[in-house]
Amino acid sequence: MSMHPRFRLFVMSVLALSVLLVTGEAAQPDHYYNCFAIHPGNVSIKPGERLMMTAWLGNGCAETKQKHAAWSASGGVLQTHQRGYSATFWSDTLGNYNVSALIPQWPAAGASISVAPYNILYKFLGGSDGANPYGGLIIDQSQQLYGTTDAGGYSTGTCFGGSCGTVFRLTAAASGDAETQLYVFKGGSDGANPRAGLTAGANGALFGTTFYGGSQLSDGTVFELTPYRAGYVKQTIWRFQGGHDGANPAADMIIDKNGALYGTTEGGGAACNCGTVFKLTPKGRSYTEDVLYRFQGGQDGATPEAGLLADTNGDLYGTTFDGGGNNSNCTTGCGIVYRLVPSGSGYVERILYRFQGGSKDGEHPKSTLIFSNDGGVIGTTFTGGLGYHYVCPPTGCGVVFKLLYGAETILHKFLGVADGGEPAAGVVMDPSGTLYGTTYASGNSHEGIFFALNPSQQYQESFHYSFNSVHDGGQPRASLLLLSKNAIYGTTSAGSYPYGTVYEMSLGV
Q1: What is the arithmetic mean of pLDDT over 186-203?
Q2: pLDDT for residue 508
């Protein structure tokens, strides 16, 4: 029976870990920071994983040596014997594979938390290579991954930060994923700095947006990459003009069965420059634009940083970062959840929820929504919920929320530090209802975390990976690509590899 290349790579990594355990040649764990005391509990470990711990000392965090005396190993499980410690497990084979996980804060005594492998598929190099992927990934039938980088590639003074960004493809190989640059943006009318991921079209076409470039005011573009011979041909299908039109698209688009594209822009539209929802309809070899909605600010929303979610009736759902009315927690409004319903030749907006911020509610959502199993919608807010605000914005570290029939439920409040904070992306859901996502900040190294929230455990973190500033990337901004528990893919925008990474997480069967 043949084995898929990505699975072969995973098996080779596990075998290498087993060899390291037997020979005792595994690298020593690096030092980590953590500021949370935890209750006694268990954590499951795998062959080759190495233990190190940090301690809470008095009024602050202190890096410590390994403290094996506080732990004992029996039957593949480590049992804590006192409060005040947390554990990180780390393994490495020639720098290509590492495992790191933190026991979630305050686990119940006897709780077992799995530690799963994290595998870096590609490290961006900057310069002529791409740098800083802000968007997520898509995958084709050959298991090749596609994405964008906000920077790197072509260098010019006309692009933000001096470089214009790229479109890339990763192909699995035994020695690590091989990158192919499909397009390098040139700035100016060509577009620059794609901050969203790609959308797959018919016949292998790839659609995306650039945040800058295009018009003289650099309001951004929509582009199409069409396969041609061994490469791709790029066409700019729309240049935003600002003003009454939109400006600066930052979120993934969606595509309907007729090939029409739907998306959002952070600016443009009404006089308040509050952003738009747009539709691009193919017409022969070109596209025509319809602005479906212009946000008005105030009690209405403003600044949609997230993409759209469509239902079977053609209704569109989304969030705005600001707007919804001023209150004591948010001077520009805490953001809204909206629904656009087709009506005649246009769309009518219905505001489903206005966030209130503070300790009881989230504020400022950046995330694209998903549908819950019972017909509601689930998303995240970047701040709010309070948490431990000394490591997060004063109003909190963000929340995961659910809306059902107009009523909001807070599924999880991020507490900062070990628990993570400031989720910049939404969550994805598996068939069991478990939610997976990332936070942009907090974690052991203040580079963000990967988390899993299990509904059977009241949406507490059933798995937690803290991005490490020494061994992997950090500051993930994009939603995950979930194929199965054994294949979850994502990007980091920065971290110790200052140009970002593409990674794979495997949580077991």
Answers
A1: 96
A2: 63
